[in-house]
Design goal:
about 70% helix, Serine Threonine Protein Phosphatase 5, Tetratricopeptide repeat, mainly alpha, about 400 residues, 2 domains
């Protein structure tokens, strides 16, 4: 588990991107001799705008159709291949255990690397080539770490760091280049603060600066084109986890959901924000919407989102005294947890605990006992929920 965390954490330092499409060819066409950087080309941005928005709104088929058209025009450049790779990545994001998109994702990123290397060989000071190389390798490393393929993850990470170093200080070329530096600055300081055991590993990495990283993320979120939404995604998560600016985290989550209403990840994160802020009516509405989209088979809406939404509804209805509804949704949270093999998660354990307490209040003592025993079995010893389950079982024995 520690090895898994080390690699996943280190790749968070490198995790940044754009958008992908295409497989490597044995021999690529010659690069144009007087090319304008596509990252700076307003015409390309206009061509890509709707497709990028469609991708983040999980309209993948429509987005990829446009990305392929861009590839036909600029097949010598890594951008369109990177554009059809991020599309695959966002298919993975709602449930990172889903491996059906891995091969296509890696093929697109391999091609982006191949095209960017051609540019880099012609000019090893080319910031655009370095950006795509750093980004593509970082994404590959993140996926390999999720799949526990540590050898490939390590190689990809080293490659990404090499080209990230070339990008540093060149944000005047494009704000897109600042995203990698921002994430590195934040996580290079955050990881050793929160996990001291990793400090010896990070001795060989440059120092970070969390405050600077957050400010850089805000700059990217306000000024970049391709990486704007990625920066907002990370800002939302960081500000929530740090609890440094919960109002801003909520504002970003609301903006992302309103802008991309069919993005399953943004939807469940917004529902979580509403629930955490005590906005019961709005949280109920969004949680029910998530479950409706799951039932209708919408892309990206699956059991992980269902686990979140069902638990929120169970809590809301229990607080209202609507016990039958609360039991219904707590049980649904349990079912979704089992489906995703998430039986050690807090949502699963607290759903069981709350089902037991409702059953106990209804004097359904046998059912309550079964729920509490399952919590005691699944929860780690010396945790509060394990202690609570034991206390409830003792209370049940007294009631009998």
């Amino acid at each position: 588990m520690m090895k898994l965390f080390i690699h996943t954490s280190l790749f968070y330092l490198l995790y940044f991107a754009l958008v992908p499409a295409g497989f490597a060819q044995a021999q690529a066409p010659e690069l144009p001799s007087h090319k304008k950087p596509l990252l700076l080309d307003m015409n390309v941005q206009i061509e890509a705008t709707q497709a990028v928005n469609d991708m983040y709104n999980f309209k993948f088929a429509k987005a990829e159709q446009q990305f392929r058209w861009i590839k036909q025009k600029y097949n010598w450049h890594p951008l369109p291949y990177f554009l059809l790779g991020l599309s695959q990545w966002w298919k993975i994001v709602p449930n990172v255990d889903n491996q059906q998109y891995d091969a296509r994702f890696l093929a697109y990123m391999d091609t982006a690397v191949f095209k960017a290397e051609q540019m880099y060989e012609k000019d090893n000071e080319d910031p655009e080539a370095a950006f795509f190389l750093a980004a593509a390798y970082a994404f590959q490393g993140r996926l390999y770490s999720e799949r526990h393929d540590w050898g490939k993850a390590t190689v990809a990470g080293k490659n990404s760091l090499k080209f990230l170093e070339i990008c540093k200080g060149k944000e005047d070329f494009s704000p897109e280049l600042l995203l990698g530096d921002a994430l590195y600055n934040y996580y290079a300081e955050w990881v050793p603060e929160n996990y001291p055991i990793l400090r010896p590993v990070l001795m060989f990495f440059p120092d970070g600066n969390k405050e600077l990283g957050i400010q850089q993320l805000k700059t990217v979120a306000n000024n970049a084109f391709y990486t704007r939404t990625e920066a907002q995604y990370f800002l939302m998560r960081i500000l929530t986890e740090e609890d440094s600016d919960p109002r801003e985290a909520y504002r970003i989550s609301e903006y992302l959901h309103r802008t991309f209403p069919d993005n399953a990840y943004f939807h469940r994160y917004y529902a979580r924000q509403l629930y955490s802020r005590g906005k019961q009516q709005e949280a109920e509405q969004e949680a029910l919407s998530i479950l409706t989209k799951i039932d209708s088979g919408m892309i990206g809406y699956e059991a992980t989102s269902g686990r979140y939404a069902s638990f929120f509804l169970g809590q809301i209805y229990e607080m209202r005294g609507q016990w039958n509804e609360a039991q219904k949704y707590y049980q649904l949270a349990v079912d979704y947890s089992v489906k995703t093999n998430a039986t050690e998660s807090g949502y699963y354990l607290y759903a069981l605990l709350n089902l037991g307490e409702i059953a106990q209040a209804k004097n359904e003592l046998d059912r309550a006992e079964n729920y509490f025993k399952e919590v005691r079995k699944q929860a780690k010893r010396k945790t509060r929920i394990h202690e609570k389950a034991r206390e409830n079982l003792k209370e049940l024995r007294k009631m009998r």
